[in-house]
Amino acid sequence: MTDADIALSAEAWLAQDPDAETRAELTLLLAEAAGGNDTVTADEGVSRKIAARESLRDRLSTRLAFGTAGLRGEIAAGPNRMNRVVVSQAAAGLAAYLLEHRAASSSGAEDRAPSVVIGYDGRKNSAIFARDTAEIMAGVGIRAILFPRMLPTPLVAFAVRELKASAGVMVTASHNPPADNGYKVYLGDLNHGSQIVSPDDADISDHIDSVARDLSVLELPRGEFELAEESVIDAYIALTSSLVAAPDTQLKVVYTAMHGVGWETFASTLGAAGFDEPVIVAAQIKPDPDFPTVAFPNPEEPGALDLSYATAREANADLIIANDPDADRLAVAIPDASREEGYRRLTGNEVGSLLGWWAADRATREGKTTGALACSIVSSPALAAVAADYKLDFAWTLTGFKWVSRAPGLLFGFEEALGYLVNPETVRDKDGISAGLAFLSLASDLALAGKTIADHLDAFSLRFGHFASDQVSLRVTDISRISDIMSSLRATPPTNFGGIAVTSIDDLSAGFDGLAPADVLRLWLADGSRVMIRPSGTEPKLKIYLDTHCAEGTLAERQAVAQTSLAALRAGAEELVA
């Protein structure tokens, strides 16, 4: 775009932006780009002018892409940011898609007037974005049902099914940095409240682009929405709490909401299931869009659980349960005297493997002879071993719960990035509330038998083999470096990785074993290890997932063999991204 094009785009944006804050932000940038700041030195003025022009070009020359993850980005002015204009355009585009979808059907559920459930978390502007969505949906005759307050993401996925809604919208950026927000879309009817996948994402995106091209958001009609009744929330709590029953003797548990919206729902669900209220990390229990006690509001990040560890040491806790800010993910930590913190956070693969075992055993005890366990292709193969042992079906899926939740006959699904689905009959998305309850039930039952989660991990290794996993990431400033690495690996496939011979390579770029095409390479090694290489879908990163396995010898021997292989794979991964 030329400077003149950018100026015209900025003027068009300002003319329709209903938000005084982002209007002022863009106006200031335009002034600085024109060199209109008389309060700074000449050199500083030139520097600011250049920076302002670069910022304007980045904000205005493209749009924030809408895809299977919906929208996600920094809150700021311009079409390449999250703001009221972009959200209003997204709402209008989704509304047009739903009306077209309804009109294309002559009978059945889709013939009725469409309906949308809308939820939001505690991030900046989440409530505003949700209200804009509800009003715009209602303005074109869609029944818009807005949650009465900030609530966890899984409740939207639940409500789409509970209310037989056509779609759901959750305003959240999950565990992204504080400056971000996002827009997640679910579909009802035959999609059962799962997140959108192709081709629906492209269809919705086309409608959004049409709105952005042809209309000012100030021209969009707005209408009256309704508030979801408390009975919807109560139904989620009742169904989730019915998964388990609390034992007479209970564990001492510490809980953190990571400055998010999980506490109210988690506490109510625990109470309904008969569990005692946990010790809370008080500084993190209430929603706070600034996330003041963590550098990055993701329980996977170093330091994110430091306050939880301190609280647990003081309480002498048996277990730490942490939700991310929108409570769709779960982190767990257990006592570990060898660590300075006194506790160790389990990996997503460890939690997923134990919950998968719990789910398979539960299904067997309930007399279920069919069903499937599923996990994403970058998650540990451990779940496949559980499925084989219990003679259950198993499915690999592409990354993301939009795929995991769609596995046929699903009993349990997970992805290594702390996402777990223990109750697919209730929710078709990762759910940190129900997963936290299930893990607490597992830990409590083990305690009654005089065992710990650490003991259970050892028992897993003895029954199914010891699985060890690791991940190496390369963050880049030039995104082309990632595509160059992937192209080079395809052009000249490696014959060994970390000194271990490569026996075969699966290139998923054209689809593989029923999976949709994905930019992923899967390497199988001579010792049974596996390496997955893929670009991140949300960050400028190349990710390398490493998995090893040993099912022979004593527990110590299995652990030693797997860890030795893992160290070799890590060296190979670090060499690749050096």
At a glance:
The chain has 578 residues and is α/β, with parallel strands linked by helices. The protein is built from 17 helices and 22 strands. It has four domains: 3-60, no CATH class; 71-228, Alpha-D-Glucose-1,6-Bisphosphate, subunit A, domain 3 (Alpha-D-Glucose-1,6-Bisphosphate, Chain A, domain 3); 229-462, 3-Layer(aba) Sandwich (Alpha-D-Glucose-1,6-Bisphosphate, Chain A, domain 3); 465-577, TATA-Binding Protein, CATH 3.30.310.50.
Characterization of this structure:
The protein has 578 residues and is of the alpha/beta class. It has 4 domains: 3-60, no CATH class; 71-228, Alpha-D-Glucose-1,6-Bisphosphate, Chain A, domain 3; 229-462, 3-Layer(aba) Sandwich (Alpha-D-Glucose-1,6-Bisphosphate, Chain A, domain 3), CATH 3.40.120.10; 465-577, 2-Layer Sandwich (TATA-Binding Protein), CATH 3.30.310. Helix content is 40%, strand content 19%. The protein has 17 helices and 22 strands. It has helices at residues 3-16, 20-33, 42-60, 84-103, 126-139, 153-162, 200-214, 230-241, 262-273, 306-315, 348-365, 382-389, 401-404, 432-448, 453-464, 480-491, 555-577, and strands spanning 71-74, 115-120, 143-146, 167-171, 180-187, 194-195, 226-227, 253-256, 279-280, 319-323, 330-335, 343-345, 372-376, 393-397, 410-415, 419-421, 466-475, 496-497, 500-507, 521-525, 530-535, 541-550. Strands 1, 2, 3, 4, 5, 6 and 7 form a 7-stranded mixed sheet that branches. A 6-stranded antiparallel sheet has the order 17-22-21-20-19-18. Strands 9-8-10-11-12 form a 5-stranded mixed sheet. A hairpin with a 7-residue loop joins strand 11 (330-335) and strand 12 (343-345). Helix 2 crosses helix 3, helix 6 (153-162) packs across helix 8 and helix 9 (262-273) crosses helix 14 (432-448). The two termini are 35 Å apart. The model has no long low-confidence stretch (mean pLDDT 94).
